[in-house]
Every structure is written in C-alpha cells, then in structure tokens.
Design brief:
Two copies of one chain form a homodimer. Chain A has 144 residues and is mainly alpha-helical. Chain A has a single domain, classed as Winged helix-like DNA-binding domain superfamily/Winged helix DNA-binding domain (Arc Repressor Mutant, subunit A). Helices cover 58% and strands 4% of the residues of chain A. In chain A, strand 1 and strand 2 form a beta hairpin. Chain A is elongated and about 65 Å long. At the A-B interface, helix 1, helix 2, helix 5 and helix 6 of A face helix 1, helix 2, helix 5 and helix 6 of B. Chain B binds a DNA duplex (30 and 30 nucleotides) through helix 3.
DNA sequence: AATGGATGTATCAAAAATGATTACAACAAA
DNA sequence: TTTGTTGTAATCATTTTTGATACATCCATT
C-alpha cells in the first residue's frame, strides 16, 4: 500500500511555515486552507512534528514555527515523525510462517536483511533531501 | 503505511516453488500451509504473478512453477506484480491543495521529482536482488 | 479578570484496503 | 466419471486513514 498522505501534507506544512513566517501567523486554519484538509488533521500532524523536535507550536496565541534550521530538517526526519509504523518498518511481514516447513522456518532469516537493504536505500535518499532544498525550488517558482 | 504482506508472501511462494519443485506438486494448499494463510489468498497472488509472467499455474491437475529462470525474477518484478497501486506510485499525495495559495499551487511541481527520486532508489535496490540470490541463501540454511 | 482566538484532544463517522472464509463452476488427468 | 485442483465471486471482520464536531485548555490582550 501507499505511504500515507500525512507525509506529503507534513512537507507541505513545513514549506508553508517557512514561506509565510515573515508575513503571517501560521495557524492550523491557515495551513488547512493551503493544504485543503480539516484543521484537526493539521493539528494532529503538528503534534507529531513537535514530538520529533521539528516544529514549535504556540498554544493560546497560536502559530507554528520550525524548531531548527530548514537545512537540518530532512525528508527522513519528517517521514519518521509522521509515518507511525511499528519500528519504522517499511515492509509488512506475514505473521506466522509454518515452522514445520523448511522454507517457512527460514524465510525471515533469508529475507530480513534484504528488506532492510531496500528500506535503507529509500531512507538514504530521503535523508539527502532537506526542507531547505525544497524551499529553494519553491521560492524560484513563486517569484516567477 | 506499510507495504502489504502480499509482497513477502509472494517471495515466500516463489522460494517454496523453487525449493520443492523436484519433490512435490506445489499446490495452493501446499503453499498455504507453508505461509500459514488461507489458500484463496495464495491463489489470488498466483494469479497476479501469472499475469506478470512470473509463474505458470496448471488448472485441473494443479501445481505452480516458475515461468522463467529464478535469476531473472527480481524483487521489483514481484513488487510490481502484487502491489496493485495506481501507476506504482509509492507516495499518496493529498488531493486538492489550494490553487489560491502560492505554496499549494506549486507543491506538486516542487515535490514530484523528489518523490520519484526516492521511489527510484528503492526500486533500483529491489531490482538488484533476484529470487536466485534468495534461493542460494535458503539452500545453505536448509542444508545446515 | 474577562474575552477572544487558538491549540490539544476525545469521539464519532465514513471510506478504503487488507485479509479470512465459504462456495462453487471450470478444468484436466486418471 | 471421479477426484483433486484452480479461478473467481461474494461476504465479512478488521484495520487504517481521513473527515468532522465538540469542547476544555491556554495565553495575550484589553
């Protein structure tokens, strides 16, 4: 199955925060308008990003800001923050392969490393892209 | 969300077919026992693998065999065969970003390439691993 | 200290995907 | 013709996601 839209929405949120931080108070309603989803979805995501140390959210007066420089926030950080899968495992393994069958008994031993290798390649690529990178592209497009 | 267990089950199936092809008729019931899921789940997967040209399944008399050498069946082939997502896209994009917002309007333009880059890294790694590779490891473990 | 705008979070509902299971027609070989 | 198997439809339960409402909590400002 696909990786949830939480991930692309979270990236969208961070780009918004950085783009508008000078000119607007970036509230969950503001973000909800840009992304076009319910404000509660945004608040839930902001909580996850906050727990991961990526953003700060102010109660009462309101508004979200990044908690560290955009160059230090990678897509992998965001993925890990919002993709709440057990131990960050990309692949769902079938639960109870037969221990009587020679193949069933060994399937984990022969597959686990390969799956990690694949997931590792994906994560390496995610780690190589920062919010700053995407901000640079965004600025260029907006200025045009 | 995670990639469905259809993927690991499909790999398990193929390893079973190759491991037992000399000694048993590998039926959906046989495979269901090793994987420990319902036989219909196996049959559905075998159909998907068949449509992708990976296995042949015999009606009536029964049994499944690989349709090409295991060295030519990669994990990417299997992934594409069973992970029935629209256009094979790994990431689910939020549907309707606001066209009024400068960020919403451009979010696809700035993200699509990056997402493809990540997915590409994953697929490259999947393509580098064949059923033969996994068979080699499996044989070693079984013989021990 | 009252107010007003915002967050944090619980709860419920709806939609989509997964996976289990039953049932049975179609098929092929003995 | 019998037997074992595949191919596939139909149904159900479960899980995950996403949408939506509601409201207590918070905090800056008046």
């Amino acid at each position: 199955m696909q990786i949830s839209s939480r991930f692309t929405i979270a990236v969208h949120i961070l780009i918004c925060i950085e783009t508008f931080k000078e000119d607007y108070k970036v509230t969950s309603d503001f973000l909800a308008s840009s992304v076009n989803v319910n404000a509660v979805v945004i608040r839930r995501l902001l909580q996850q990003l906050k727990r991961a140390g990526i953003v700060d959210v102010k109660r009462g007066s309101g508004g979200a800001v990044t908690a560290k420089p955009p160059g230090e926030i990678t897509l992998l950080d965001i993925y890990n923050a919002v993709e709440c899968v057990e131990e960050g495992k990309l692949f769902h393994f079938h639960e109870n392969p037969s221990q009587e069958c020679p193949v069933g008994k060994n399937i984990h031993a022969v597959l686990d490393d390969r799956l990690e290798q694949i997931q590792g390649a994906m994560e390496r690529e995610m780690k190589s892209i920062s919010i700053q990178d995407i901000m640079n592209d965004t600025k260029k497009l907006i200025e045009k």
